[in-house]
Amino acid sequence: MSYAAALAFDDWTATQPHLLAQARWHRDVSWSGHPLIPPWVNLNDVGLDRFFTRLDVAEQCWEWMQDEMRADYADPDVYWYVDPSAGDGVFYDLLPEGRRSGVEIVPGRAEFDCTDYLSWLPPSSQPSNRIAVIGNPPFGYRAWLALAFVNHSAVFADYIGMILPMAFQSDGKGSPKYRVHGAQLIRQEHLPVGSFCDDYGQPVQVNALWQIWRRGVNNRPPNSTCDQWVDLFTVDMRKERLCGQEKLAVADWFLQRTFYSEPPQLVRDFSEVRYVCGYGIIIKQDADDVTRCLSNIDWCDYSNLAAHNCRHISMYHIRQALIDSGFVDD
C-alpha cells in the first residue's frame, strides 16, 4: 500500500506494521547525508519513538504557548502554526483552522503532510510568514533527535513550543539546550507523570519537559569555577565506553553517576560505585573541607531527573555543589 492509499484507508490497526516499516524506510532515505543527523547515528537503531500526549496536557502546553507569545507582544492570532510530528492530532486539533500545518512521517490523516519533518519547509504559498512550531517530537538517544527538531524549527519559526526530554534541563556544558542555534529559551515547565500513551492508548511512563523558545541568540551564561580545589574525571567500566581506568589510583574519592531513590555517598574505591559509571575526584587543596562539603550534599538537589525515573549527576552538578558552598576560584 502506498502512502497516498494509506491516507484514505480506514483500518489503521490492520495496516500499522506495514506502514510503520514504510515510514522508517522513507525517513531513512530522507536522512541520508542530512546535516542534522550526527555521524554516529546508526539508522537501524532509531525507531519511530511514538508516544502520544494526553489531551489535557496538550491543552495546557498550548495555553502556555499563547501566554508567552502575548507576553512578548506577539499576537497569536496572526501566526501560522506547524505541528512537526502530528501523530494522532492532539496538538494539531487545538490549532486554529486555516492557519495550521501538520507534518507526520506515518500516514494517518489526509490533511497532514506525510513526510520527514527534518526535510520539510513551509510552502511558499502559506498565507503568513509568521510561524510558530508546537508539538511533541521524537526524542532519540540522549535527546539528539529532539535537538534536531528544535534546530530545524529555528530555521523558519519565531516561536517553538515542544515537549522535550529531561536532558534539556541540564546546565552542564554538553546540554542539548546549549546546542540550539538561532533561538533562546523563554519558558520551561515539568510535565506531570502519566502525560503520554502509546498507539493503543496504554500509558507510557516518560518524564519530559515543556519548553518554549523564541527566535534569538542562545547565549550561555558564564559559569563560576572551582578548579583550584578539585579535578574531576569520568570512569566508565562498560566495554563500549571504557574510560578513566588510568586515573583510578590518583583519585581521592569516587561518586556514582546514576541513582534512583537513595542518593549516593563518596567512596574510596571505584568497586563500590554502582552501575559501573561515575566520577573520580582529585582534591587539590583543603581536603578536609572539600570532603566534608561533598559528604553532606543532598544529590537529589544536584542531579537531573531522567526520562525513566532515575537521576543523573553530572560534573556540572558536583562543581555547582562546591561553588554553592563557597569553593569559588579567584
Description of the molecule:
A hairpin with a 5-residue loop joins strand 7 (196-197) and strand 8. This protein has 330 residues and is an alpha+beta fold. It has 6 helices and 15 strands. The model is unreliable at 1-14 (pLDDT under 50).
Strand count, sense and barrel status of the largest sheet are:
6 strands, mixed
Order of helices and strands: HHEHEEEHEEEEEEEEEHEEH
Question: What is the gyration radius calculated from CA atoms?
Answer: 23 Å
| Architecture (CATH level 2) name of the largest domain | 3-Layer(aba) Sandwich
Helix content bin: 10-25%
In terms of structural class, how would the helical and strand content be classed? alpha+beta
Q: Features of this protein?
A:
15 strands, alpha+beta, Rossmann fold, 3-stranded antiparallel β-sheet, 330 residues, 6 helices, 20% strand, 6-stranded mixed β-sheet
Brief summary:
With 330 residues, this protein is an alpha+beta fold. The chain has a 6-stranded mixed β-sheet with strand order 3-2-4-5-9-6, sandwiched between helices.
Element layout with pairings:
Layout: H1 3-7, H2 12-31, E1 52-53, H3 55-71, E2 80-83, E3 100-102, E4 131-135, H4 144-154, E5 159-165, E6 183-190, E7 196-197, E8 203-204, E9 208-215, E10 230-236, E11 253-256, E12 258-259, E13 277-283, H5 287-295, E14 304-305, E15 311-312, H6 315-324
Parallel strand pairs: 2-3, 2-4, 4-5
Antiparallel strand pairs: 1-7, 5-9, 6-9, 7-8, 10-13, 11-13, 12-15, 14-15
